[in-house]
Design goal:
It contains eight helices and seven strands; from the N terminus they run βαβαβααβαβαβααβ. By secondary structure, it is α/β, with parallel strands linked by helices. Helix 5 packs parallel to helix 6. The structure holds NADP nicotinamide-adenine-dinucleotide phosphate (NAP). InterPro entries: KR_dom, NAD(P)-bd_dom_sf, Sc_DH/Rdtase_CS, SDR_fam.
C-alpha cells in the first residue's frame, strides 16, 4: 500500500471546504501538498492552518493560460522525476437555474470549469505522476439523480465520471488508479463553488437534511477520508465512484410515524 508519509499531492481547489480538509488530513499524516484556489486571502489562511508541508498556488482553472503553469509549479516544488503520488481535482462552479431558462454563458462556464479544466489539468500532470499513483475527482450525487435547477452542473459531473472510466482503462498499464468521490449535502462553511447569494444556503442545507436518510449534513472530513482512501488505500479500485451522501442515492428515507 502506498505510504502517505513523505508522499506528494496536488489538490486543485483546496483553500476551503472539503479540499482544505483533505489537505489537512494528508499533512497530519506526513504528506506534502500543493493547494490551489482563486483567492489569495483564502490561500494565505489555508497555508497558516497547514504549515510548512503546504505550498500554495493561486489559479483560476477556467483560464487555459493559467492552467499551463501547473506542471512547472509541481516540478519547482517537488522535483522533475514523476514526483506526484496523488492528483485530486476538486474545484467546480455551480449556478442553479431552470433548464428552460439556463443561460448559455453560464452553461459554457460550468462545462469549462467542471469538465474541460479538470480534463486538461490532469492530462498535463499525469506525466508527473508516479507509476502506481492515484487520481481523484470530486463529482456529486446529482450526476445520478435529477435535482431541479442543476442541469449544467450535474451533466458536467456526469461527464467527469465517464472520463474516469476511460482514464482507468488507459492508465491501468502504469498502475495508476482513477476514481471519484461523490458527495451528497456537505456542510462547507464558505462554499465559493456556489455561484448564488449566500442567503439561500440555510434553506439549501435544510432541504438537504430533510431528504437525506441519515437526517444530517455530511462533514468535510467525511469526504476527506474517502479521498485519502481512494488516493492511497484502495489499491484494487479504479474507475469507480465512492458515494458519501448519508444514503441519499441508495436508500429511501423512512416515513415519520
Ligand atoms: N458542498 C457540497 O454539499 C457539495 C456536494 C456535492 C458536490 N460538491 C462538490 O465538491 C467540491 C468542493 O465543494 P466545496 O463545497 O468544498 O467547495 P468550496 O468550499 O467552495 O471550495 C472550493 C474550492 O475550489 C476553489 N475554486 C473554485 N472555483 C475555482 C476556479 N475556477 N479555479 C480555481 N479554484 C477554484 C475554491 O477557491 P476560491 O475560494 O478561491 O474560489 C476553493 O478552494 C466541488 O467540486 C463541488 O461541486 C459539493
Amino acid at each position: 500500500m502506498p505510504e502517505i508519509k513523505d508522499s506528494n499531492a496536488i489538490i486543485i481547489g483546496a483553500s476551503h471546504g472539503m479540499g482544505l480538509e483533505t489537505a489537512k488530513l494528508l499533512v497530519s499524516r506526513g504528506a506534502n501538498v500543493i493547494i490551489t484556489g482563486r483567492h489569495a486571502d483564502s490561500l494565505q489562511s489555508a497555508k497558516e492552518q497547514l504549515g510548512d508541508k503546504a505550498t500554495t498556488h493561486q489559479i483560476d482553472i477556467s483560464s487555459s493560460e493559467e492552467r499551463k503553469n501547473l506542471p512547472k509549479v509541481v516540478t519547482a516544488t517537488f522535483g522533475e522525476q514523476k514526483p506526484l503520488d496523488l492528483i485530486y481535482v476538486n474545484a467546480a462552479h455551480a449556478r442553479f437555474a431552470p433548464f428552460l431558462e439556463y443561460p448559455e454563458d453560464i452553461l459554457r462556464r460550468t462545462i469549462e470549469t467542471n469538465f474541460i479544466a479538470p480534463f486538461m489539468i490532469v492530462q498535463s500532470l499525469v506525466p508527473l505522476l508516479k507509476d502506481g499513483g492515484a487520481i481523484v475527482f470530486t463529482t456529486s450525487i446529482s450526476n445520478v439523480r435529477g435535482f431541479p435547477g442543476m442541469s449544467a452542473y450535474s451533466a458536467s459531473k456526469a461527464a467527469i465520471q465517464s472520463l474516469v472510466e476511460t482514464m482507468a482503462a488507459e492508465l491501468a498499464s502504469r498502475r495508476i488508479r482513477v476514481n471519484t468521490v461523490s458527495p451528497g449535502f456537505i456542510r462547507t462553511p464558505d462554499p465559493n463553488v456556489l455561484d448564488f447569494p449566500k442567503e439561500v444556503l440555510p434553506g439549501l442545507d435544510a432541504y438537504g437534511v430533510s431528504i437525506t436518510p441519515m437526517e444530517r449534513l455530511g462533514e468535510p472530513i467525511e469526504v476527506a477520508k474517502a479521498v485519502v482512501y481512494l488516493g492511497y488505500d484502495a489499491t484494487f479500485t479504479t474507475g469507480s465512484e465512492l458515494v458519501v451522501d448519508g444514503g441519499l442515492t441508495a436508500a429511501v428515507k423512512p416515513a415519520k410515524a
